[in-house]
Write a structure and sequence with these properties.
Blueprint lengths: L8 E7 L6 H17 L8 E6 L6 H11 L3 E6 L5 H12 L5 E4 L11 H9 L4 E6 L7 H16 L8 E8 H7 L9 H4 L7 E6 L13 H15 L2 H29 L7 H34 L6 E5 L9
Parallel strand pairs: 1-2, 1-4, 2-3, 5-7
Antiparallel strand pairs: 3-8, 4-6, 5-6
Helix pairs in contact: 9-10
């Protein structure tokens, strides 16, 4: 493997209604990037690219003010709200034209920015993808911690390659980003999609801190949507499980029929009300759950056939930068 040169690094920061943290985040990120430049770890044309995901507060205005005052900051703005995963993808797809490596990090800076050195070490050692994995979940409440643990166990049981306790805090090389650009599905779950590419990778463990300010914009509903996307976008095992459950149910029904015939032949008067009720409820529940799972996959197939854009970019502000292909 050829020795890698010092990379031009872009930090991609998705933002949705983050007016309370933008200014502080921008200062912290610039200080960190300047320290890396001074240490000779990254090139001086490295930048921070904020992605505005249809914010309804003053976030976009503040981002444009930053970009206007300092060319170190860039801004990509969506025409509407397309979601966290789309914002990350759009930022990476834009940054790949200018950067050798891209790191995605949330605007609240709960993900430890000091882990960047470790990301760069792994990149220089040859990794095309470097995954950020949380050391623990001390900052999460009991409910979120418990559901997250169960979710990743379920993901692994269903055949997903997503790393347990991984986050959308990762480094990707230009080669990895070019490979990712070949994927065209609209249902995005990057934590499961990127490992499926099979490129050389490494893991960096980081601590999670409290938010700099404000409240998390990742609601329970958004987490549930991401969880469903994660399962249905990276595995068809739930569909196969329906077939298995159906087969087991048919066997159980045949056994019950045999026992019922034997009881009838022996002259046993069996009321059967409770048994009938239980069987009806169980079968009805299995059928409805099965239809729901199949409907989820059918819906995703329907959305994919539309070939609608995953996002629409309203504007891009990037000053004093040059595309690699020029």
């Amino acid at each position: 493997m050829n020795k890698r040169h010092i990379p031009t690094l872009y930090l991609v920061v998705p933002c949705y209604n983050e007016e309370e943290v933008i200014e502080k985040t921008a200062i912290i990120l610039k200080e960190k990037m300047n320290a890396l430049m001074d240490a000779g770890r990254i090139e001086h044309d490295s930048k921070v690219l904020f992605v505005n995901d249809g914010s309804t507060d003053a976030t976009l205005r503040m981002l444009h003010d930053l970009a206007k005052k300092d060319s170190f900051y860039g801004v990509l703005s969506f025409a509407g709200n397309y979601g966290h995963q789309s914002a990350i993808l759009a930022g990476m797809m834009e940054a790949r034209f200018y950067a050798d490596a891209v790191v995605t990090i949330d605007a609240d800076l709960q993900q430890d920015i000091d882990a960047l050195e470790k990301f760069l070490d792994a990149y220089m050692a040859g990794a095309e993808v470097v995954y950020g994995v949380r050391n623990d979940r001390k900052t999460d409440g009991f409910f979120k911690k418990s559901t997250a643990t169960l979710y990743y166990k379920l993901m692994h049981a269903l055949g997903s390659g997503a790393l347990a306790n991984s986050a959308d805090y990762r480094l990707m090389s230009a080669k990895a980003l070019d490979a990712l650009s070949e994927y065209e599905e609209s249902s995005l779950f990057l934590r499961g999609l990127i490992p499926s590419m099979g490129l050389p990778s490494d893991i960096v463990y980081f601590d999670v801190k409290e938010r700099e300010a404000g409240k998390s914009k990742y609601t329970f509903g958004k987490m549930m949507t991401l969880a469903l996307d994660g399962i249905t976008s990276s595995s068809i095992r739930p569909l196969r499980m329906i077939g298995v459950i159906g087969f087991i149910t048919v066997i159980a029904a045949i056994v019950m029929v045999i026992f019922s015939i034997i009881d009838w032949a022996n002259g046993n008067a069996v009321q059967g009300y409770t048994t009938t009720l239980i069987v009806t409820l169980v079968l009805g529940g299995v059928i409805l759950v099965s239809l729901g799972v199949m409907g989820e996959y059918l819906g995703k197939t329907y959305m994919e056939t539309k070939h609608r854009p995953r996002y629409i970019v309203d504007s891009v502000v990037l000053r004093e930068c040059r595309r690699k292909d020029e």
